[in-house]
Amino acid sequence: MNTANRTLIGLTGGIGSGKSTVAAMLADAGATVLDADQIARAITLPGGAALPAIQRAFGPDMICADGSLNRQAMREKVFSDPAAKHQLELITHPLIGETMATAIAAAPAGTVVLDVPLLVESDRWRKQMSAVIVVDCAVQTQVQRVSDRNGWPSETTLSIIRSQASRSVRLAAADAVLVNDGLTLANLRGQVMQLASRLGI
E strand or H helix at 25, and its extent? Predict the structure, then answer.
């Protein structure tokens, strides 16, 4: 789908799949990349638009002394309480969507890649996409990468994986799949550039 001379392509994948690495490669190929996670972080920094509602809903313990979101406490809360997760999403998702829409409107003509971790779980963006790219890998690969990167215990990563769309559901929604298992960065880049060429990026 073209929106004012912009072609919107979705990019998604589970935690530890390598989605952010692929996003950077697509940017190198010439796409404008908009990262929903970066927007989510921005609205929960000191003075962020989401913080007043988060404090009202969850209490002052969810706000750090510097005025930012207490990410560890919130992570523990939402992954142990589905109702809390839903409540947080009701606060943050509309703000992320508004910011993303503004950024799309300001993007130069051409391909705009929307890097959205929960793309498959949400109906907001999928219907606007010309194509959806899924970065896929085995669950054990996800766990190992997150452990190496963040130092999290396996159970923490697995709880996040269980809270996201299943691998099969994500793959079923894909127009293109990048299998990022056992690849060197050079191999992955080669696949990404081939896909970028095929999609007209």
Answer: helix 19-28
pTM: 0.87
Q: Which two tokens stand for residue 163?
A: 């809270």
Across 15-145, the runs of DSSP E, i.e. the strands, are 32-35, 110-115, 131-136
Residue 170: how many CB atoms within 10 A of its CB?
Answer: 22
Q: 143 with 154: CB under 8 angstroms?
A: yes
pLDDT in tens, 42-93: 999 999 999 999 999 999 999 999 999 999 899 889 888 889 989 999 999 9
* Beta strands in the chain, from DSSP E residues, in sequence order: 6-13, 32-35, 110-115, 131-136, 176-179
